[in-house]
Amino acid sequence: MTQGNSCAVARSVADLRARVRDWRAAGLTVALVPTMGALHAGHMSLVRLALTKADRVVVSVFVNPTQFGPNEDFSAYPRQPEQDSAAIAAAGGHLVYLPTVEEMYPAGASTMVEVSGVSSGLCGDARPGHFRGVATIVTKLLLQALPDVAVFGEKDFQQLMVIRRLVRDLDIPVEIIGAPIVREADGLAMSSRNAYLSAEERPVAARIHAILTGTAAALAQGKPVAAACSDAATALLASGFRSVDYLELRDAETLAPVTELTRPARLFVAAFLGRTRLIDNVDVRPAGA
Ligand code: AMP
Q1: Considering the entire predicted model, what is its pTM?
Q2: Distance 108 CA to ligand 1 centre (A)
Q3: What is the C-alpha separation between 55 and 71, in angstroms, rounded?
């Protein structure tokens, strides 16, 4: 990271809109990359992708309270706005949007965005209200910045589907771009929550990807879906995971449950390692597809 690198910062909707208005007046296109900060190489890949899609890139950093459950890690979630701003500047981002909770949810705010269907099952069941919070904040960010494109990671695959659906259903004029999962050398999907893992837990966490890819290969070779998923959950518990929220094969487009692998699918997992909830997903295709 370049020493002293800094990036323009907007802290209010008015600041953000003023910047975007100037860019628009100059005929420039705009990309938005929404994040909750504690940025890592996965987030940076989104910024780099955004730079190839638009002239100016806004990265929002906002730990959104409405997407956390009452017993989740909202207050413990890592916050490092200065480091994040420097990393965004070093990657070539043009503006960091750092709104406060009061700016995003002014007193009396009483409208939420609810996306049915794709929000059900998987994290939707394991984290009630989570996607309502995500859909609401992403709708607000899109309406505040009105970008041409917005980039989201496949790390949160169900979230990406929820956002594609809300943009379509609410006629928000933005192109949603999905970015592949960036992983550590041992396969662990990068995540701000990996910082919660202890030195003992860290190598165990990598098992999640090894087990998913092994299961994807077995499924491609014809292993029955129910047996493959239950064996994978058992393998996670045997590796040291405390509990498995879900381990399921779903249709890659509709997220409908898949009981037989006849078309492209996605294998999803959420599991607790100690106190840390990890999620991951991999592509699964029938052999020859
Ligand atoms: P978060 O800060 O965790 O809310 O993530 C912000 C955006 O970065 C979301 O679109 C995530 O899907 C994406 N993201 C997080 N981790 C990764 C990763 N390892 N690879 C690709 N995208 C990621």
Answers
A1: 0.97
A2: 30
A3: 41
